[in-house]
Amino acid sequence: MLDALLEAIALILTPAGILAVLAGAAIGLTFGILPGLGASQAMILLLPFTYGADPDYAILLFVAIMSAASFGGALPAILINTPGTPANVCTTFDGHPLAQRGEATRAIFISGVACVIGSIVGATALFALIPVISEIITAFGSRETFWLVVFGIAMISLASKGNTIKGLVAGGIGLLLAFVGRNYVFPGERFTGGIDFLYDGIPMIALLVGVFAVAPMVFIGARDYVVDPSVTAGVVAGSGGSYRAQAKQGTLDVLRRPVRTIRGGVIGVLLGIIPAVGGATASFINYLLAKQTSPDAQNFGSGSPEGLIASESANDAKDGGALMPTLAFGIPGDVNTAVLLGALLMHGVSVGSPLFNHELSLVMIIVLALVVGQIAVVLLGAAAGPLVTRVSTVHTAYLVPTVLTFALIGSYLYRGGVWDLVIVVAAAALAYGLALFNYPAISLVLGFLLGVEAERNFVQTRTMSGGELSGFFEGWIVWVLIGAMVVAFLGSAILGRRRATTAAATPGGDAHDTSGDGSVTPHDAGDNDRPAGASTSQSTSQVRESAPAAETVEQPRTWLGAGFAAFLLTASLAFLWAAQGHEEDMALFPTVVAAVTTVLVLIVLAIEVLPGVRRLAGRLDSAAPEAATGPAGDLTAAALGRHGRVLGWAAVFVTMVIAVGFLALPVLVAGYILGTQPRRWRSALILAALVAGPLITMGVTSPAMFWPGAIPPVVPDLVGGGVLPQFR
Amino acid sequence: MHRGRRSSQVIAVSAGATLLLASCANDPGAGTDGEFPNGTVRIVVGSGPGSTMDHLARGLAPHLQDMWGESVAVENVEGANQSAGYHEVANSDPDGHDLFIGVHGTFGIHEHLGNLEPGLEEFEWFGTLLEEPYAFHADADGPFGSFDDLLDDQPIRYGDSGYESPVNPFALTVFDTLDADYVFTPGYDPGEAQSSVLTGEQDVVGRDAAQMLRTGTADDYEVLLVATEEEHPLAPDAMTFPELEDEYDVELPVLDIFQLGFPIGTTPGTPEETVDILADSVRELIEDDAQFQEWMEDNHMSESMQADRIGREVTQEHVADVLEQYEDFGVTDLEERLGNGAN
């Protein structure tokens, strides 16, 4: 273990290691600052570009990004009252009031030092687990792993935004999508519709890029700025007191409260271990606990350093907790660890016993990266505070085509599959629909990532038990997992009833959404031209203000929601029907999943069209206050038109890239900017040139990685002449 | 109307800009002096980084590059159980600049399932880079100190990736010959199948003899049986096929399909002289290149990478043998046969 630790330290101290940490910190900071984006988007956009790189450095980069983004998100939360990530919602409660008092630098340092201590607590917990992890993993055979997968999907659905039934539907659809292609247990392929390129299944990277990178752009691109410039008009960074004095004060604020800071970290770790508990939940629960136990409770919400510490320490420590189930069992704790799991799989790293037994140095790299990434971002962020307003008010005309460009190139690079680009747009459209109608996309992704594992363990358990159903229910671990699920669902129902009672007693009562799963929803993405971060008091009030208007579109909402549910019903029925065409072994698990999903979608349909059923669901489901059982997004024709425009551009990008190749991208970037901002010729040309330069270099130096387009050759090896693989 | 005109302008300018940008680039095409190689050579493998095939390709590439004075790039074309990479090279220009490293067993099964176009025997194979016998590995700290112990504990629990795994013909033949009861559990990832032995979920896993040495886990496993006629230098304590025949009075021939072999080839239609240059180059590395030999040693390949397995004719014959043996063995009903494990 010591050898592995020293090996990890040596790797991090190499020039490439230092570069990876600094790059990860800078990227995480930037994406964290941008509301609506976060670590998952940064990682997913970079993931394909690291293909073929040394996995140690790639994972170091990703963990540094993951660690850095939440502090990045704290900066706009403090400075402009807009959390960069859902995990920074509580940071606004005391961080922004401090900034308004002219103590922005102090608030940034409180946040930074609390983040570092939180990450140290998280990393220490992960480190402490290593000696016993092999024992724990050994106790999980196929039977236990099967139930752990079911537990993970159930918990994600229960805790995510949207409602539980819709979460389970999304998880079921994700599982079904994972069954497409060559079967990893039985000979033959399933659900490909005869399409050759689906033989290896739906490409994971393309799906993740579509869901986590492109779908948020549909909402972000529907407005002019990532954050409305009016929000930043009163920015107070740098004002009040000397920088050094405030920095010292902020640091001492944290160091003088070691117990509270470390306690916040421990709570973050414990909550992080539970699948689906995001940083937002961790920070919110710790914030409430700190408020209840603090002698300074009356100042919480008006610039209390203690409140800010409570939010940030738990928020960062939960990464260490979330990594435990990810690394030990391949069950991601949240959306960031889901993407990190994808990165580990892409780099050929097997999680579980192989990782802890044979690649312990990589585990140590992850542990250390949590801390060093955090330290690096705090140093960067402390200096970058004044730049926050500039970055977060970037015009979406530049952001959207840039993200699309990265997304498409990255998806292609993963396996050189030009048709994968079609999957990117299809996944983005599906994720857009899910977000619009309040289905948690993270459930779909988790189902997709765990689908093969679920079936594999299902088949193995069934094989080893000689086909006996009772074989699935042997062993105390299985019963603990089943019991935990029952308790969680019953608890959810009880909470739902209490919430309904409270809401009835308090007109206009609202509860903060603390799921913070990082998946895109129109609220997160700041739909309707309002700043992102729906969980802030600011945006919550905007939601309330817009409620009467929403009533006027109740009918279209109902029928559009029902239409989307009908689409999902058709999909699950198609899987159910197609499964019957296979032999029993290959058909069994998909049939079970498709049947359960079909029943759940039917319930959703009933909720969508029958008000009585909707009210009943709202009372039973704590994750689904009545409003959330219906659509979440703005379904006015104007909003749908804005979203459709961005989705249309994404489709044009894909079509043009397939036909003309990567060198269509600079033109498309310029085209998008000019289509949105007709007078910005200069900016369009500069950004196009910035895209074109690296692409031409790539085409010349790495032709194997460059897609020249399917049209007849125009410029050898750069434009035209690419051999388009058979689609069918 | 105004919007339409603006769109037209944008499209026209876009098209012009594309051509302008594209024309700025130089033609990176290969030279045309007619000698081989006269441009970048790429070695395609059908799996991701980290596999044995990928490892072989990345071991060969720098040494071939030094020898030829041309760039040699490794490209991972994953998909369709390695056949995507095969088809990529099979459909390239037949000039020897595109090489492919596969697995004899996997492609033998593909061929019999009709998945390859052009067929396996049309491909210009020119060497088997590495060949090692399959072996049964058990937990070194587990209850099985020998193959006899394993047979005493029937039904034997044996797990692997799936019914199509090239390890299965070896396992199935051994179990059927000894009339042993077994339960085959499919669905493991390769690494998981090995771990399942250490966790006690499975009794044995079939892997090539040097697999655990390369992954640094040899101490964790006990090799019980190896598909060789003679004692294997990497598994000296394991029972061999002749020993097993003597002890249990059965006949168990060592077939080519009980070996994990990695053939290398190039595009069908490539001139014979070019294919011979490729074979000679690889043979030269194995026989004469001290640095490459050191690399082989470091990777436990000195015993299994033999120069006499390099060459067009010897490899084509080997491919034909593998195909014939798979035909005799039968691969289309593996699921049914493995599912009937308990005799």
UniProtKB/TrEMBL annotation, chain A:
Keywords assigned: Membrane, Transmembrane, Transmembrane helix
Organism name: Lipingzhangella rawalii
Membrane-spanning residues: 12-37, 57-79, 107-133, 145-162, 168-185, 197-220, 265-289, 362-384, 396-415, 421-452, 473-495, 559-579, 586-607, 646-673, 685-707
Protein name, per record: Tripartite tricarboxylate transporter permease
Ranges of Polar residues composition bias in the record: 534-544
DUF112 domain span: 18-446
Pfam families: TctA (PF01970)
Disordered as annotated region, ranges: 504-552
From TrEMBL, chain B:
Regions annotated as coiled coil: none
Signal peptide limits: 1-22
Source domain of life: Bacteria
Keyword Transmembrane: no
InterPro entries membership: BUG, Bug_dom1
Keywords: Signal
Record family assignment: Belongs to the UPF0065 (bug) family.
PANTHER family for the chain: BLR1237 PROTEIN, TRICARBOXYLATE-BINDING PROTEIN
Protein name (database record): Tripartite-type tricarboxylate transporter receptor subunit TctC
